Amino acid sequence: MTSLTEPSYKIPSQTRIGHIHLKVADLQRSLDFYCGLLGFELTSTYGEDAAFISAGGYHHHIGLNTWFSKNGGPAPKNNAGLFHTAILYPERKDLAAIFLRLREADYPLTGAADHGVSEALYLDDPDSNGVELYCDRPREEWPFKPDGSLEMYTKRLDLEGLLKALR
User: Fold this and answer.
1) How would you classify residue 81: left for phi > 0, otherwise alpha for psi between -120 and 50, otherwise beta?
2) CA distance 33 to 134
3) Which of 22, 29, 57, 25 is nearest to 42 (CA)?
4) Is-contact 75 81, C-beta < 8 A?
5) For the whole prediction, is pTM greater than 0.90?
6) How many helical (H) and strand (E) elements, i.e. helices and strands, does the chain have?
7) In this predicted model, what pLDDT tens digit does every residue of 107-129 receive, in sequence order?
């Protein structure tokens, strides 16, 4: 029997996460957050209980539905489930722009970190689903250990330095 911890199969390197689908309590409240605040575009609705949103006209990056969760509470923090949705911005200036938008809207962050390979902002959506907004550093700037493996870490993100990317 093949060990699943040392698979002979490798997923193709061009594989990407196509979309996520979130259970939400209030569809309009979620649309206000993801479209109104974060700037995603509504591409389609499915009845009154689901919506599909995207960046740049893709059919959908995020699905939102109330099929099993309408008017429900957030998922328990100490149970298995989604930790956060990570939204990758193309450039540092784009991350700075959404940070400024969040700051101007007085939307609370739950954290901000420099991971060496990326810079990230953390917040919760209206249903307490974790959201990471981040941008990767150029690959040639990634930190590596002497053995060649990545040296990722969590350090304080210089938020004022991030805003300088807008200048």
Assistant:
1) left
2) 17
3) 57
4) yes
5) yes
6) 3, 9
7) 999 999 999 999 999 999 999 99
